[in-house]
Amino acid sequence: MELVAVFLPLFAFVIAGLFGKQIGDKGCQFVTTASVIVAALASISLFFTVIFTEGMVNGMYVTTLSNWIVSGDFNVKWSLRIDQLTVVMMCVVNIVSACVHVYSIGYMSHDKSKGRFMAYLSLFTFAMLMLVTSDNLLQLFFGWEGVGVASYLLIGFWNHKHSANAAAQKAFIVNRVGDFGLALGIMATFVVFGSIQFSQIFQDPSQYAETTFNFLGFELHALTVICLLLFTGAVGKSAQLGLHTWLPDAMEGPTPVSALIHAATMVTAGVFLVARFSPVFEYAPTALMVVTIFGATTAFVAATIGLTQYDIKRVIAYSTMSQLGYMFFALGVSAYGAAIFHLMTHAFFKALLFLGAGSVIHALSDEQDMRNMGGIWKKIPTTYAMMWIGSLALAGVWPFAGYFSKDIILESAWADHSWFGDYAYLMGITAAFMTAFYSWRLIIMTFHGKPRASKEVMSHVHESPSVMLLPLVVLASGAILAGMMFYGGFVGSSSTSHGGGHNAALSGEVSEIIPAAGDDEHHGQASTEDAIETHHETETSHKVSHENSHDAPMVNTWSRDYFWHDALFVLPENDTIEAAHGAPFWVKKLPLLAGALGILMAYIMYMFLPTLPSKVVGIFKPLHTLFFNKWFFDQIYNAVFVKNAVRLGRVFWASDKNIIDTVGPDGVAGFSNRLAGNLSKFQSGFVYQYALVMIITLICLVSWFAFKADPSFYTVKEISIIQEVSE
Amino acid sequence: MDMPPLLSIMIFLPLICAIMVALIRGEKGDEAVIEKNVKHLSLFSALFVFAFSVFMYLKYDPLATDFQFVEKITWFGENGINYHLGIDGISVYFVLLSAFLTPICIYISWFSVKKRVKEYMIAFLMLESFMIGTFAALDSILFYVFFEAVLIPMFLIIGIWGGPRRVYASYKFFLYTLLGSVLMLLALLTLYAKVGATDIPTLIANPVDFGLQKWLWLAFFASFAVKMPMWPVHTWLPDAHVEAPTAGSVILAGVLLKMGGYGFLRFSLPMLPEASLYFAPMVLWLSVIAIIYTSLVALVQEDMKKLIAYSSVAHMGFVTLGIFSFNQQGIEGAIFQMISHGVISAALFLCVGVVYDRLHTREISRYGGIVKNMPAYATVFMIFMLGSVGLPGTSGFVGEFLSLLGAFKANTLIAFFATSGVVLGAAYMLVLYRRVVFGPQNNDDASRMPDLTSPEKIVLLPLVALVFYLGIFPTVVLSKLEPAVTNITSIYDALPANRELSVVPLDNVSDSGELNDAEGENKTEQP
Fold first, then answer.
1. φ, ψ for residue A7, nearest 5 deg
2. Is there a contact between A645 and B412 if contact means CB atoms under 8 Å apart?
3. B202: burial class by Cβ within 10 Å (0-12, 13-18, 19+)?
4. What is the number of CB-based contacts under 8 A between chain A and chain B?
């Protein structure tokens, strides 16, 4: 099953990539889409087998395919690790990817190289699956770089455009900076743990809790160094502050790409990495602190930029960055389950928003600037409704998915009771306000008010074909239901026995909702699994025993511990999710309030008093300039790194010619020429002469040395050298 | 052994064929026929050698730690120079690589070389013979002879069939390598005077004292560092590459650069272990400089070949880095990097050759947007570009990662700086690719170039397959390397002084502050 789920997209890529001409565009679309849909079904089935294993048996298993790199004690295999975290990621990746594949058939219908586009999408899906299923750091790195390449190819898909190529190149290189850290992290892991196999690393990281090792000349805490290096990779891939500059530019790619890669899946790889390494991060509190601060700051900064942008896709891109920030500070406060929960809900609603934006762009003949939109909501009602659902989920309004996942993150941050936890809570609340604000700013500017597009464009405005709307509906149902459905499993209280009405109600709901949640195609699949699941429900008892795992099938599967098993690890004293359930009322409700205020504010400013925004901008001019120019990151990086690298390159190149050559070969040649006193002849001489000169010089030197050094040695051997050389 | 003398066959078959090619004569006016015969004979002999090398590879026993296919004929005196051949897990791949690339070179020159075809083919066949001889020789003098003899045909290839500045380039090439080889010969003779043997296994078994080792090491280093090439003696390479014909560049990058690394592994490391340790920090830092310096230089190049030449220097930096970390991963990584670079850089030069043959310019700005008219070419070039960048799944990654891992074990600071080359490497290759292949089509002649022809495809596709195969199943190579590399590392594990350099403490607390500042002096003096 896992082989189908992972390798079918690769198969589709190879077929569509190599035989694209033979099978035609239709053939490519069919092969890739069908493969990914089947892979999605396979991952859903895996999800049920792994999560709902009988009793308390851990459903995790590893399938080894072959050796990859074996060198001394460094041993890496190609293998697929199927555990709880993996199956969640696989479902997210494959379901969103299937939606995007279907959507692309409609969206790219006017493009000339549809086949190539579909092939790249499948390649990306494969790489992402390799990333999440890997059982060692190196295969993870393979997937990590693989998604990077796929992203590079897809951002630069319209390769005749200068801006698209520049963006693609930037994305790859900036990501490489992160990968530089990740690669070092892998090496450090190997040096400290003696292996990069997950099973070996996670076995007992506590024994290295006190280990120090020498890094860059300093004696440092080993696990902190490892975690921070790995986190550097995550910062790059997940566009956290510092290495985020590529993400907004990546919007140059076609919109389905933005939805799949730059919202739902690839950018969450960093979150996945940290969650995967939770057993190690737990013993590196300093690293966790850094993660929290990075995440919280990113959430805030990205939201401020999002307030001021006019490109519809860039607004959503900054919102993605901001939401990734949430996930990271959730990780930082050890609320790994909450981070993955938000990862999943975010995948649905953000992909929905992007695809909805794509639908708008499609309707408006490729217009992306919100200043040239407006007044179209009646013409494209389905898209409009979808954008509303996506925005409600993003803003965290009950009962949409974002409400559940964002709240538990903020509550966990608060429950961490540390200064950086409080900082994260504060930043998170502020960002939640801004998120709601810019989401409705987007909706109002795009759909309401007077049409600002040209007449010609307006006359063409049309609702997208159903092949594009259907994926939107699937994602929308995820954006509505995913939060409610999975709350108990992902982050629910682990003390199920007295979990009370809230949890029980949720888990009760699950059995009814699951069949509806799956796409229509997997209805049968889901309901059979549902039967197993209900079976567990009925047998749930108060007895929770960790010891006799085989004899105690009476466990509520739909609670955090039995959902995640060992896939996520939290030290008991760090368990903020548990503490979050007991957070006071105001902590729980403040995010919702902030969201509601943001929506209200957006309505006031853009719907009722349209002159207000420019006045506000006038008052806060410097701040607006800072936000509008994205805090000047691009300019600074360009001036500091890009320009200097080129300058340094020129200097070095000149020194090659002017210093090394002048002192070296040219100097020597000049010297010998002066000795010879016959420059022109030497230079114009026939090339064979050089060979001759070389041999003669050699022979002379050999003879000189041999005679001087040891005459007896010379007499026999030197002749042989002469003979050989002249041959 | 029942086996036929495979190595000798592989060395002498091309030589004999070269003589036969020289003897092909005809009436005036028959030039076309002569040319055809010359080409066919050369290609077939090269293919035969390749077939032999594959046969040898299949017969190679991966578990044996000794040299295999050994041939030993007394040549001069009892203790004197022997005709001694044999291969181990390291050299088998270089022999294979030489035998693999030569037919490719001959085949791609089929249409592009117009003048003096006969001499050209003779040069390549001689080159093949000498290359295989270099990697198979187990006698130091024999090695030296082959090692130097390789220069002659290469020198001629650049000097006769090269570009406009070929004379300058070939003579720069000559000057650099001459200096190094003279010193190496001195070292070999000194070793003979001291140990009384020229046989490589004997020399390895009888190390000389440390004081002498240092001098000998420097002499070897002068030769191998130029060949690698290491910074700062690399400046001959860009010129040589730029002026050389495509096939010359392929062999130069594919095989000749590996002779330096091979020399380190065959001579410096096993024969002069203490001196190698003593000088290791210097080599490691030079490697780091090479990686960063040449990557930055590559970033600003306007000439495609020059850019790839500089990238070769950077890639060779990873090789020296791995070799001088003295551990299994580092050395195996270095060897793998050499093999992989042999395939990838050869392929990149072939790719440049493809467009050069059409437009006769290597200037990057003369191209652009050619993905439109050459989609197959763009795909193939993309694969090699990503291989060169070191994408996991391609062969480039395995070598680079393992050598960096080895370096990390030896010294984290050096590994840190060297790993930054990964970022720079991506930068210059992507810039090259983007400027040549993507973007708007501004140059009419470039946008009219036809896509890959079938001969070009025949040459490039096996290389594509190899890049992926080696990237996904590198164990095929690594497992055969292991015994030979263990032979080297075991020497170092036995040296007490090495403890600090190559073993990073895994236990709770390490007490070595000197780990990073690996001062050679401390090392050798400590018990």
1. -95, -10
2. no
3. middle
4. 246
Q: Whole-angstrom Cα distance, residue B215 to residue B224?
A: 14
Contacts of B423 in chain A (CB under 8 A): 173, 176-177, 179-180
Q: What is the pLDDT of residues A600-658, one digit of tens each?
A: 888 888 878 778 778 888 888 888 888 788 778 888 887 777 787 788 878 887 777 77
Which pLDDT tens digit goes with each residue over A245-298? 899 888 988 999 999 988 888 999 999 999 999 999 999 999 999 999 999 999
B47-86 residues touching A, CB cutoff 8 A: 75-77, 80-81
| A648: chain B residues, CB-CB within 8 Å | 296
ipTM confidence score: 0.88
HEC sequence for A192-239? HHCCCEHHHHHHCHHHHCCCEEEECCEEEEHHHHHHHHHHHHHHHHCC
| Candidate from B151, B430, B440 with C-beta closest to A172 | B430
Structure tokens at B329: 């991963």
Interface test with B, best of A170, A207, A214, A707 (most B CBs within 10 A): A214
Residues 303-332 of B with CB under 8 A from A: 327-329, 332
Among A78, A660, A727, the residue with its CB nearest the CB of B235 is: A660
Two structure tokens written together for A49: 């087998």
Q: Residue B503 corresponds to which amino acid?
A: V
Q: Is A177 on the interface with B (CB under 8 A)?
A: yes
**Inter-residue contact A192 to A222 (CB < 8 Å):** yes
Distance from CA of B18 to the nearest CA of A (A): 13
The amino acid sitting at B263 is: G
Q: Which of B333, B224, B211 is nearest to B269 (CA)?
A: B224
Q: How far is residue B306's CA from residue B291's CA, in Å, rounded to a whole number?
A: 15
pLDDT 10s digits, A399-439? 888 888 988 899 999 888 888 989 999 999 999 999 999 99
Helix and strand element counts for chain A (H, E)? 34, 4
For residue A672, the tally of other CB atoms under 10 A from its CB is 12
Phi, then psi, of A80 in degrees rounded to 5:
-115, 120
Contact with chain A for residue B341, Cβ under 8 A: no
Nearest Cα residue to B90 out of B268, B332, B370, B253: B332
Q: Are residues A216 and B416, on separate chains, in Cβ contact within 8 Å? A: yes
Taking CA–CA distances from A215, the nearest residue in chain B reads B412
Phi then psi for residue B332, to 5 deg, are -65, -40
| Tokens matching residue A671 | 């010297």
DSSP assignment string, A654-702: HHIIIIIHHHTHHHHHHHHHHHHT-HHHHHHS-HHHHHHHHHHHHHHHH
